[in-house]
Each structure stands twice: as C-alpha cells, then as structure tokens.
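The freezer alarm interrupted the setup, so I double-checked each line after restarting. Inputs confirmed:
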Amino acid sequence: MRYPFSRIGVLAGIVIAAALMMFCPRPVHAIPAVGDPFPKITLPTSDAKADRNYLGIAGGKTFTIGDIAASVVVIEFFSMYCPHCQADAPTTVALFNSIQSDPRLSKRVRMIGIGVGNSAYEVGIFKKKYGIPFPLFEDGAYAAMSLLDIRFTPTYMTLSIDKGKATVVHTQVGRITDVKSFLAMLTSLR
Amino acid sequence: MIRKRYGIPFLCLLAAFVLVTAAGYAWAASGAFAGSIYDPGQLKPTDSVLKVKVGDRAPDFDLPSVTGERVLLSSFAGVRNVVISFVPAAWTPVCSDQWPGYNAFKEIFDEHNAVLLGITVDNIPTLFAWTHEMNETGGGVWFPVLSDFWPHGATAARYGVLRSDGTSERALFVIDKKGIIRWIDVHDINKRPNLEDLVRELEKLTD
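Predicted 3D structure, all chains:
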C-alpha cells in the first residue's frame, strides 16, 4: 500500500527539524544534575579554628569544596532573609547532630552553608540566632547562585569528593522534611 | 500537488520541533516556585528625586495597616526611634526580599529602641497575603505593614521616593525620637541593602 506522503518530504522534515534542534539555542536548566562535576567555587578560609579543623583546611586564604577532608559534603544554600531557611534551621542542626553521632558518617560527611547574596554580618547573625554548628560562608556577590542556577532557598546539594574533585550526588530543593530519609541517603553513598 | 506531498510532512515535523522547544523553555522557566512570581528584570537603579534630607523633620503620615489599625508616624515621637522601609512592591520573591529578614531579627530593633514600619504602594489585601507568606508559622510579620495605595503613593511622593511607574524606591529612613531624619538610603532597587549598614546607623542613635 502506498503512503499518501512522499518519503522525501518526511526525510527533509526530519533532517531540518534535527538541524534546528541542534543549532537553535535552548535555555538549559543549569542546576547541576546528579553525576555532574561541581563547579570550582572559591570560599574564604574561615577565621574560626574550629571550622578549619572540622573541614580539614589548613592554611591559605581561600579553598574550594574539593579541598575539604571528607568523602561527602552537604552544602545548604540558604539566605538569612529566607523564611523557609529560618524555619529549617533547627532541622539542619538535628541533621548535623545525627551525622556527628554516627560513627561512620561522622568520619565521612561534612556540612557547610553558603549564604546566597548574604554579607558576612548577615551570615553571622543567622549562625548565632539559630545556633548553627557547621561553618557558614557569605556569598555577597551571588557567585554560587549564578554558577549553579540556585533559584530557591534552601537548596541542599550533596557532593562526593574524590582526589580533590567534587561530583554532585544528590540535590534537594526546599526544606528537609524528614531527617531520617536524608540520613539514609547519606548512608547509602559509597 | 507538490505542496501536499512534501509540505504536509515537513510542516508536521516543524510543528513537532516548535512544541518540543517550547516545552523546553517552559520546563526551564518553571523551577521551584519561580513560575508563579513575576520577574520585572533589571530596573533603573533609582528613578526619583528625594524631597527630604538628613536633618529635616520626617514628613508625618497616617496610613492604614494590614491589621486594620491606622499608624501615625508622629505618635512615636518621644517614644521610639523609627525605621521606615519602603519596598517597591509585594510579591517580589519572598526568599530575596528584606522584610522576612527584619521579621526574624526583631531583637535588633528592640536593642535600639526602634520600631520598623514597612510601606509599599500596594493595597491592603495584597500586603496581607504577601506578608503572611513571610512567616512559616503564620500570623504575618511583627512590624506594622502600611499601605500607601490611596491616594496612590502620596507618602512615598512626599518623601521623594515614588518612581515614575508608580512603585516606590527600595529606601530606608532612620528617624530619631525627636522626629528628625538621621539617615537615608535610597538603594539600588535591584539589590538588597546590607543589614549591617542599618545596624551601624541605629547604633549612632543615643537613645
């Protein structure tokens, strides 16, 4: 049975559509996907010795995530101004404490926070008010947000570190609703 | 003849391409919550001429608040320092606006014997809904939220912070207990003022 349309017409359509798809710019949702490398974001080395010891960062003015002496790093992208982050602060403290009280996780996992668009002062009062026990860093220039397309805070990004290279293994946008399942995710990472 | 043979399949495939691309744009633009918040893009940093300066008496106003009460600026004279925070509009993304920050850190204002007044040119129902989004536990914010909606922007205009499109500037005024303006920050509307600058000015007030 003959098809009513020409094969050449169909083929031409496929070729031209494919060419257009390849060469026309489409917006890319830039938040890293699982398996993507984490961009080399530079953070200032903390003044607090306790923070430096916790992260295993010796000297130098700056460091990158890959420099942290851990197998897994959980980053909370937050803002002092964000009501969801204010509400999730006790949960992050609970998560930190659960990690620290687990013999295996406490050796492998480190937590940090990056205050998107926050100044050092703003990050400092957030840390003090909510008693955040893990290191927090300011990102007044929104560098992290633009590199990573963070659109919502809190965003929790979990990275695996291997020989100084950081790879995204999990991303959660929005509040942690269940510390247990977050811990289960961390425990499942090799 | 030719049009039917070649044209129809070609057009069908082109339509498929357009749909796939449009879906791609829609997906990229959605994000978490981003699709329901209007993005005005980059605006002119400031778009007004101040009508007051440091040392002037702050123009008095009597505006309705989201709780139903009216607030008179001069009622704070002799009692409290006043911080006025004009912000451009409600429903700018709550995660990036100033007021949820001021809402969480009431102690900073208490320490400096200051009351905070939040003002926009929006109407009361809009301000009510927006400020109730700022507090996960419900109940809105601790500070009076005032509507400069009618006559539209009259108070903002008296201070010289009404922009040509009818929104107000992102501006902070610190007023002492004598009712005198001690600090003005008409900020780049696209950026959020750092809290430490406001704290520094509050610390200069002696009582």
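Quick read of the result. The beta strands of chain B are 62-64, 70-72, 81-86, 114-120, 145-147, 170-175, 181-187.
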